[in-house]
Amino acid sequence: MNGCSNFRKRGVGFIFAILCVPVLAANDTPLTERWAPSEWGPDDKAGAVNRTTPALVLKAVKLVKRGKVATLGKVYQQDAPAFGSRGWRMTIPGLPTGGPFGEQELVYNDDYLATEIGQIGTQFDGPGHIGVITSKGAYFYNGRFAENPDVTTYGLGPLGVEHVAEIGFVCRGVLLDAVALRGGQLPIPKAKDLSDPGIVTDEDVRAMVKKQGIDPIGEGDCVFLYTGHGNIWHPTKWDTFDAAEKQKRIAQFNAGSPGFGTSACDYLASRKIILWGSDTFASEAVGPGFGGESDQPFECHIIMMTKRGIWNIENLDLSQLVADKAYEFLFVWSPLKMKGATGSPGNPVALY
Length: 352
Description:
The chain is of the alpha+beta class. The protein has helices at residues 3-10, 14-19, 29-32, 54-61, 162-165, 178-182, 202-212, 243-254, 262-270, 299-306, 319-323; strands at residues 69-71, 88-91, 98-101, 106-108, 112-115, 123-125, 132-134, 137-140, 144-145, 169-177, 199-200, 222-226, 259-260, 275-278, 311-314, 328-333, 343-345, 349-351. It has one domain (29-84, 116-351): 3-Layer(bba) Sandwich (Glucose Oxidase, domain 1), CATH 3.50.30.50. It has a 9-stranded mixed beta sheet with strand order 1-18-16-10-12-14-15-6-17. Strands 7-8-9 form a 3-stranded antiparallel beta sheet. The longest helix is centred in the C-terminal third of the chain and has 12 residues, at 243-254. The protein starts with a helix and ends with a strand.
């Protein structure tokens, strides 16, 4: 029974019922399993991207054989799908914004943007995005807590995305084509069971690697899952749809997502990858109640990011890679150096 219930039973009054705060249940797994310090030490702020070495970079560069380039980011625009109440609202403050100046009558235009800039569209989840409520407070990567004095609403301090951006991602990119494996677009999961076709398991990951004829997933790799669900928010046709069709597709896209199950996430972590992602809004399987293989919403987010510092990039456009069957490529990208931010937008590049 929480404090709010006690106040109401005692009839102390309406104002106390409004002001009292429920006592949250605690999950002390990060403490009992000693998720911190990470293998890179108690001062680390970047996570698994620390695995990047000159040797791995040079090896990844050798994957560029056809001289082709694919950009993997989707277009940021106001009527694109967004999770929950998030939104993208960009305006040009005046046409022109400034000027004219000088004899040549120079003018210029600026942008004004109101958005959850780290968590919209093609988005990178950084160290301060996902945490767990414990008995000692809200726990985040490498044993840092939201209650720490250097973590504030004006910037997350040691949990800020800029610490990952100092290193950036240059790696062997691996595309896992689940549509080819399943024989069609993966559905949103309906059952919390490994047999559900919307949940990609560790066995599925190994099967895709074998089917695609590529080397096993290894240390320093960046791994991306193509489910076909992202085509609801079509990467090239979106602006050809009318408003009604867009609203229909937004509802379909946000209703849940196929993706990695926890067995797959544990497997990828065991292979020591440094980044995972997908063409969906979560990269992991999201079914009823936001659960995947279990009732826990976004469990892969916890076991990959909060526990291990293996960050996630969502809402990728993987269509060109799929069309070209480019299952291995040089992946190059870095989050923006936004001090204290939870994540970052961006337009990753694949070269092959």
